[in-house]
């Protein structure tokens, strides 16, 4: 095994830094293609000896040279790494808006993430739904694929708070689709409580999943994006953090959550400055409450039931009273839906002159100062 492959810890890991380069170097006339990697070494349209190269950069140079000289290949063998097969990008969705884009939604098995994943698929994107709850993610993926075709969506297991798990996830995406164009960092948790109730354990749990995990997904998710940008002058990638209105204004007895979301905006602004040279925009969306989602509406452990039972809303006798209390604080008198959030994601992706912003989607409840 050559040194650079060994340094990257083997053929599969090395393949994950080659697939995005191939995706950028060998696009179809009408746009990006997808790439599927396998460890087999059977013959292909173009062949290279990866093990004979001194470094990944040496291999990239040879691939770049070939891309200017060869007919568009359907498959490429890199000896020492494996075989890369190209596939036309795009799904059965007739909507061309995100056609061919590879997107990832963390925490996409339910709630906002599920709704965002469904909207992105409807807009023509390929969607990876990555979640702790793989079984639920698989059932969402099955229903998306039934509608838009078998390579429209893919379910993968991840714990966004675990570095190895996040690294594996990003590599799996690259090896299954060839790269990544839109990363939606949505997985999040909430543990409310004032200073007297909050334990260090709960505080650190919320901080890890809402704040630290955003660092991890951005670190490993930006890697394939950087490689694509390096070899495709038209590339532009997006990282979008699903933040919260509680990232813009403090939240009474909910400081673990609000603090983690405020911190998220600091990361968004800093990553935006760093990644601008890699043509990756980084923005946050700050939704208001999604009252129809499971966090609020779950009949057993949803916040409506919890707040009713805890007497948090004075005079409330039913779940509807609690709903009225909260919705009356919103000038537009409605909660925030996954479609509302996806429209803001679309804005982030389609515009080409803004990065590092935190965009409220709150029906007027939170206004920027
Ligand atoms: N629901 C709201 O009213 C609301 C409002 C503003 C912002 N948000 C934000 O939107 C995002 C989604 O919230 P939601 O209410 O839809 O949540 P939810 O609890 O309904 O769903 C969260 C999903 O994330 C997954 N998840 C949790 N921990 C994970 C981990 N460590 N690794 C991988 N997956 C994990 C869960 O399995 C679940 O599928 C969060 O970032 C939240 O802070 C929610």
Question: Mind explaining what this structure looks like?
Answer:
By secondary structure, this protein is of the alpha/beta class. Helix content is 43%, strand content 16%. A 7-stranded parallel β-sheet has the order 7-6-5-8-9-10-11, with helices on both faces. The protein is elongated. The mean pLDDT is 96. The chain folds into 3 domains: 3-88, no CATH class; 102-288 and 337-361, NAD(P)-binding Rossmann-like Domain (Rossmann fold, 3-Layer(aba) Sandwich); 289-329, no CATH class. Residues 106-107, 109-113, 131-133, 158-161, 186-189, 209, 242, 244, 287, 289-290, 293-296 line the site of nicotinamide-adenine-dinucleotide (NAD). Residues 106-107, 109-113, 131-133, 158-161, 186-189, 209, 242, 244, 287, 289-290, 293-296 line the site of nicotinamide-adenine-dinucleotide.
Keywords:
single chain; 369 residues; alpha/beta; Rossmann fold; 3 domains; 7-stranded parallel beta sheet; 4-stranded mixed beta sheet; 11 strands; 43% helix; elongated; binds nicotinamide-adenine-dinucleotide
Number of strands: 11
User: What is the topology, as strand order, of the major beta sheet?
Assistant: 7-6-5-8-9-10-11
Distinct bound molecules: nicotinamide-adenine-dinucleotide
User: Rg to the nearest angstrom?
Assistant: 22 Å
Outline type: elongated
Distance between the termini: 57 Å
Give the C-level CATH assignment of the largest domain.
Alpha Beta
SSE series: HHHEEHEEEHEHEHEHEHEHHHHE
Which fold name fills CATH's third level, the topology of the largest domain?
Answer: Rossmann fold
* Tally of individual helices: 13
Q: Which regions have little confidence, pLDDT < 50, spanning 5+ residues? A: none
CATH architecture of the largest domain: 3-Layer(aba) Sandwich
Structural class: alpha/beta
